Amino acid sequence: MAKPKSAYSIPTKTGKLDTHIFVVWVDNEAGVLARVVGLFSGRGYNIESLAVAEVDQTKNISRITIVTTGTPQVIDQIKLQLKKISSCS
Question: Could you read off the pLDDT tens digit of each residue along the chain, which spans 89 residues?
């Protein structure tokens, strides 16, 4: 088995790896997807699956669906970081 590239993906005694699905509603503007993906890549978190779609043309809103795997602590950290990003946009 290949060694994980990120310390965040190594299971610990306090938590096992879980798969989690995040659905993020964002303004459909340039750079938003790059900020979300940058959050994951900058911290070494893995994105298993990513889908983006415009859901409301009049309000200019898109939905980003992200599937990721991590310990409960990593999942909590991702939630906090996504909330921080969504409050900035």
Answer: 555 555 555 555 556 889 999 999 999 998 999 999 999 999 889 999 999 999 999 999 999 999 999 999 999 999 999 888 766 55
| Domains: count for the chain | 1
Within-domain flag for 19: yes
- CA–CA dist 89, 22 (Å, integer): 17
Contacts of 45 (CB under 8 A, 6+ apart): 6, 8, 9, 39, 68, 70, 74, 78
- What CATH number is given to the structural domain containing 25? 3.30.70.260
